[in-house]
């Protein structure tokens, strides 16, 4: 899929770009961006997943042209090599996709070249492009929004290695790491149907669950955003609790893959809370109290908060469609080398 350097943006084929998230669907066509509520489990908790998928297909087809190219950033676990969609807690709960979603789209609009990629891969492609001039060996992108996901690219080879199912970085569904005093939060549910996952505590819906369990009755996304900047005690305690599992994910990446020298952190939660979110993360990371923590300023160099201007998954989807990064199965990549 990779064929030399990505072309100049000004010469690219006119394209409809679509971002399917758990809360919103955003589209961009002819430079005009629009936003509509997503037909998702988060927005419609009582509607069966199969019906939600039908509605999503209808919405995507309705904004597609008769001919041309559509690139889609999809907030679902999927095989970026084949386009096979596996599932998505925010979109469909614990339901596992049993349809060839991309095939359905291609049959509905056969004149359109459909390019559908995992949203975290799209975020990675945009972030990797923005830091390419720093020549990091590998670069990671962690999104904290209605779900939590990670993707890592090797920039030397321009590849994102995935497992035999086409997956990489589903860290939101790892067991959650909690401080002893908040260990009782380990029972909280996750959109995937499990309990005690990183996303159970640290995703957007997870933070609301934690706030409810801690008895913060006035919680809302907007209250949290304002209260953290004002140093409110409840908000500070909540922020410390919900950033700890994310810090442990970052620490695990560094310990096992030290060549990932830059990790961008984006997504609605991290972008919305901004600098206080980064400060809380760094406090956890620096407070490890172990020789494994590294140099005091190491985490400042590694962790980039992408709140201004934020990662552009629409641009990332287009970069991927143009081959900026190749998605390869780890085993195949190893055989070639
Ligand atoms: Zn989960």
Automatic annotation (TrEMBL):
<dbReference type="GO" id="GO:0016301">
    <property type="term" value="F:kinase activity"/>
</dbReference>
<keyword id="KW-0418">Kinase</keyword>
<comment type="similarity">
    <text>Belongs to the ROK (NagC/XylR) family.</text>
</comment>
<dbReference type="Pfam" id="PF00480">
    <property type="entry name" value="ROK"/>
</dbReference>
<protein>
    <submittedName>
        <fullName>NBD/HSP70 family sugar kinase</fullName>
    </submittedName>
</protein>
<keyword id="KW-0808">Transferase</keyword>
<dbReference type="InterPro" id="IPR043129">
    <property type="entry name" value="ATPase_NBD"/>
</dbReference>
<dbReference type="InterPro" id="IPR000600">
    <property type="entry name" value="ROK"/>
</dbReference>
